[in-house]
Amino acid sequence: MVTAALPAVELRAMRREDLDQVLALELASYEFPWTPGIFRDCLQAGHNCWVLLHDGQVAGYGILSVAAGEAHVLNLCTGPMYRGMGYGRRLLKRLTDLARWYGAERIYLEVRPSNPQAQELYLSVGFVEIGRRPNYYPAHMGREEAIVMAYEIKPLGSTRP
After folding, report:
1. What is the pLDDT of residues 32-90, one digit of tens each?
2. Could you tell me the CA-to-CA distances from 154 to 24, 65, 121 in Å, in that order?
3. Domain 9-152 falls in which CATH fold?
4. Full-prediction pTM beyond 0.70?
5. 2: DSSP letter
6. Is 110 a catalytic residue?
């Protein structure tokens, strides 16, 4: 009996040498992608930038900003060929763990209404919609609003709802 080897999966801090692969995923995933400069600025600013590697290749990435007791998921992406493997959930868990470690009480993010898969992921881990930002994202026919979501971080060992 032959068994297929499971892929080697690693989660680690993003490095400058990851940027070409990160940008390739960004371009493959979004019609209005971040520029190389935005990713470099996030690394330079010291944001929590993480990659998930699948057999040594960048399969996804997440970027988290933390300040003043709040965190903000700036970007979370899994490459098209790696979707449905739980990698987005794994990256999001790392970002929420980091936010908790840094003492944030709440995590915010924006998501496009036209991205129901991302909305499902966020709702499934406990994010809730708290508002909308009109004309937030560029779109082919003008602008698209953003759904603003928040996640309340419970301290470890807390019985708080």
Report:
1. 999 999 999 999 999 999 999 999 999 999 999 999 999 999 999 999 999 999 999 99
2. 35, 18, 19
3. Aminopeptidase (3.40.630)
4. yes
5. -
6. yes
Domain spans, the chain: 9-152
Q: Is the pLDDT of residue 109 over 80?
A: yes
Is 144 assigned a catalytic role? no
Annotated catalytic residue, options 122, 137, 144, 151: 122
Exposed, middle or buried: residue 32 (CB in 10 Å: 0-12, 13-18, 19+)?
Answer: exposed
Alpha-carbon separation of residue 39 from 16, 42, 74, 128 (angstroms): 9, 5, 10, 27
For the cut 90, the answer to whether the pLDDT of residue 158 exceeds it is no
Pick the catalytic residue from 102, 105, 108, 110: 110
Whole-angstrom distance, CA of residue 80 vs CA of residue 4: 22
